[in-house]
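=== RUN LOG ===
request id: a7f3
mode: sequence -> structure
chains: 1
length: 162
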Amino acid sequence: MHYTGKNILLLTLTLFALLQSMIAVSAPLITPQPRDTQSLHGLSSAKAVFMLSIKDAGRLSHVLNVVEKTEKGMRAQGVNTKIIVVIIGPSVAFLTRNRRGISYKDQRNVSAVQKSIHKLKALGIRTEVCSIALRGMDIAPANIIPDVQAVGNGFISAIGYQ
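=== RESULT ===
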């Protein structure tokens, strides 16, 4: 192909536009993530208790993912954590081995809840379930997934960890 001044100018402008769009797309990728410097100032370790009573499995799954991100974010910022998740109320229905009473449309979200709890355990985050809520939902503690420990009273558990 024979390049004329017009072709070279067009090629140069095209390459310049392509380069600009690549920079614009990659800029968010290289922008540093916000940090929590002020709130974590002087901390080398922290304890947290999350008490969850969420009736919707999709929302519960989302919150559990945020708990995971919280632990990872604190660790990335040099803070060791001890995190406990206490599940009370209607959320306990999503922790059963056989998923009795869970509708077909909720099965995927319940599976996501249980996978999230498994990931939390791998990070060292303990998940507890309130036995009072289990009794209220007619769920035997033996039917709870292995990554969760039943406690007598979720409120007492939360108070004890504070």
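=== NOTES ===
The mean pLDDT is 87.
Helices lie at 5-30, 37-40, 57-76, 107-122, 131-136, 154-161.
=== END ===
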